[in-house]
Amino acid sequence: MSGRVTLPIENGMDDEIRQIARLWGADAVRNSDGTKLPPITSELGAKIYETYFVGRGDNDWAYAHPQDRPQIFLMSQRCPALGDEPLHISVMDGYLDKQVEPDVQADLQRYWQVIDRTTGETLPSEKWSLAGRGADTQVRIEKPAVGHVYTVDFLAWQNWDPVQMYNYITNHWEDDPQRIREQPYDIRNPETWDYAQAHMDKWLKDHPHVDVVRFTTFFYQFTLVFNNREKEKMVDWFGYLGSVSKLALAEFEAKYGYALAPEDFVDEGYYNSPFRLPRWQFLNWMEFLGEFVTERARIMVDKAHQYGKEAMMFLGDHWIGTEPYGDDFPSIGLDAVVGSVGSAATCRMISDIPGVKYHEGRFLPYFFPDVFFEGADPVPELEARWSQARRAIVRNPLDRMGYGGYLSLPVKFPKFVQRVSEITDEFRSLHEVSGGAKPAVSSIKVAVLNAWGKKRSWMTSMVAHAKPYFQTYAYEGVLESLAGLPFAVSFINFDDVSRGALADVDVVINAGQANTAFSGGDFWAQPDISARIREFVAAGGGFIGVGEPTACFVPGSGTFFQLSDVLGVDQEVGWTLSTDRYVNVADTNFIIEGFDALDQRSRGRGLKEINVLELEPQPQPGPEQALLDIGPGVGSIVPTGAQILQFIDGSVDLGVHEYGQGRAVYFAGLPYNSVNSRLLHRAIYWAGHAEERIAENYFADRPEVEVAFYPEVHKVFVYNNSDAAWTVNVMGPKPFQVALGARESRWETV
User: Fold this and answer.
1) End of a domain among 674, 694, 714?
2) Domain tally for the chain?
3) Is residue 608 part of a domain?
4) pLDDT in tens, 582-596
5) Are residues 609 and 704 in the same domain?
6) Cβ atoms within 10 A of the Cβ of 179, count?
7) For 364, phi and psi rounded to 5 degrees?
8) Are residue 669 and residue 711 in the same domain, yes or no?
């Protein structure tokens, strides 16, 4: 088999390119950051991708127009005033002066803010002064309040593109005299925009051999700020910090009727991260920037089409303003999107994007020297990443796959090269054997409820190739499981709930840490929200909470989980007296049926809660060993009516609750693993009153093995996600047994 694979190539390895292109069945080739396509390209008979940067890569223009550099709002370190002497704040402490430079010529009253963080007040400009420039820039507060903490929000120039800088450092370019530090430029400025359009026209004329223009990406880089040791100081793949300029801020004010302040971006030092409840000022800025970016991106895409080329957007690097699930995204007219696939959730984030003709995934590990070096073994990472991604590809297939980086690195690892050839064949089989059909899904409709809703479908943190944050384990694990489960999943926000979105949903999932956008924070203080969900569940709907769902302090409620009555559990926050909490441990439940036969799992909680009132160990109901791994857990979860299925260390890990005609399930944590995914699978069926339908689409009796049913072609795809061999019974309309090796998959006819 061949096709559907894109291969990165470079100069100086013609024989290896020919061999691997045949072995992997590549039908497209591409250059990587810092490389050029070799002369051999024309003889490969493959579709040619070429990377194109709209806002970087021409340092001559950038140096000649320093006023067109993109800008960024940053915050100094927090500095306490410990005496009545003047306080000096060095704004660049901890920042890399090669990357950013304070804009000391800006209107300080408008673009700089000195804030007393103890009171939250902004100091009038006459109470502070500015001295120095560059790394030596200082703010002097003449008479600070003793014992108060101060920060400076400041506007800075961006002098080095942060992604190029990342590659520069990771790939050891500092020793290569041919490498230069690329300075970006902002196409909002009319002269630079005219230049960018003319530059692309010329580029298109000069590259007649290129079939696909791969925009990397368009105009504004996600937040990636380095410290003074050239290490990542702050990374937010959703961050809009680097999208500002004086011109943009002026145009925003003219359109929206109010001016944004530096603090609207700095956000107390949280920088409007995806964890934060989105504030209306930030949402306005996202809307404003999105309209601008999509309009100008469409012009660039049209140019590519005029030259008979396809236009592809890399969902990474300078993607800010092109929200792929935003209403304006399809208007860009892109032919394709490509993105980095580090997990099932990141895969679904790419494959579910509407408004494009095809979707491509760039798989990990990248061909970078941090993975491929003497003595390393990249195969284990390859296996783990593919197993996770495969779960999502089965449910909503990517159209194409490929790798990023430098082919000269993996050719030194023959086992890796061979295993990739097997993976590419398996990938193609999902298209060819299925006849292009998607597997059947349950009739149960699942909605994930958070503050972002559809705009951030399948998105959590997505930083550093999907490496998890501690704060997202409760939410990220849910998405990772859902990405490979046989359910139609939608994402809704709290406004959607108010507008009646629950009418089209069977089971609602609310997951995440308290006070985050994932669980909802202060949105749960709105009586209409909790009332609508109570009504939904009482009428027969399902509700699943994970971590600290519906958590919010609401005066007068007397609970922390605002839907504690629905969930049947609440979190003890240290205010309750010694109130009896009688634990009703259920002997069994549909959700945990069959799990007794599995290996007992170790407890996942990192911190053991201690009740200081217990001078001696007290007996408690329930098993001491856990079936459910709750990860870091929450702790101090107490029953308020639920039947408890796992109760360890005095805290509820898993509970179920009948509420009116509906049902609720609570998980204290749900980091992704095969057992937890299976538990969520069963929990959705139980919450949806559909236990008897769980075998409608086939499933295996081991959670490590998953199954996809293609009724149109009478085929079942069975795949082992573990590194152990299993013989499993597959339940469904026509049960059968199958033996699978480690990571193996197999097609069966039913």
Assistant:
1) 694
2) 2
3) yes
4) 787 887 899 998 876
5) no
6) 15
7) -100, 155
8) no
Per 3-state DSSP, the chain is made up of helix, strand and coil in percentages (nearest 5) of 30, 25, 45
For the chain, count helices (H), then strands (E). Answer: 16, 34
CATH number of the domain to which 559 belongs: 3.40.50.880
As given in the structure block, the two tokens for residue 741 are: 């090796």
Question: Catalytic site residues?
Answer: 317
Tell me the average pLDDT across 325-339: 96
Q: Work out the percent of the chain whose per-residue pLDDT is above 90.
A: 81
Please tell me whether residues 473 and 520 are part of one structural domain: yes
560 and 534 assigned to the same domain:
yes
* Of 178-182, 362-366, 429-433, the least confident: 178-182
**Alpha helices (H) in 405-551, listed in sequence order:** 414-432, 473-482, 494-498, 527-538
Angle formed at CA 71 by CA 244 and CA 99, multiple of 5 degrees: 145
List, in sequence order, every residue forming a beta bridge with 80; answer none if it has no partner: 149
pLDDT digits (tens, 9 = 90+) for 251-263: 999 999 999 999 9
Q: Is the dihedral of CA 475, 480, 485, 489 positive or negative?
A: positive
231 class by beta-carbon count within 10 Å (0-12 exposed, 13-18 middle, 19+ buried)? exposed
What is the band of 334 on the pLDDT scale with cuts at 50, 70, 90?
very high
Q: Residue 333: exposed, middle, or buried by beta-carbon count in 10 A (0-12, 13-18, 19+)?
A: middle
Domain that residue 736 falls in: 698-749
Kindly state the tokens that stand for 308. 């008979």
CA distance 400 to 27: 10
Could you give the maximum distance between any two Cα atoms of the chain, in Å? 82
pLDDT classification of 617: cutoffs 50, 70, 90 = very low
Residues 402, 339: Cα–Cα separation, whole Å: 10
Does any domain span residue 567? yes
Same domain, 610 and 714: no
Instruction: Judge whether 351 and 252 are in contact, CB under 8 Å.
Output: no
- Predicted TM-score of the model (pTM): 0.93
Per-residue b/e over 35-47, b at no fewer than 16 CB within 10 Å?
Answer: bebbebbeebebb
142 in any annotated domain = no
Q: Are residues 501 and 458 both part of a single domain?
A: yes
Spatial separation of the C-alpha atoms in residues 242 and 72, rounded to whole Å: 5
Q: Is the pLDDT of residue 3 over 80?
A: yes
Q: Which residues contact 407 (CB under 8 A, 6 or more apart)?
A: 7, 8, 9, 10, 13, 16, 17, 20, 367
Rg of the chain taking only CA atoms, in angstroms: 27
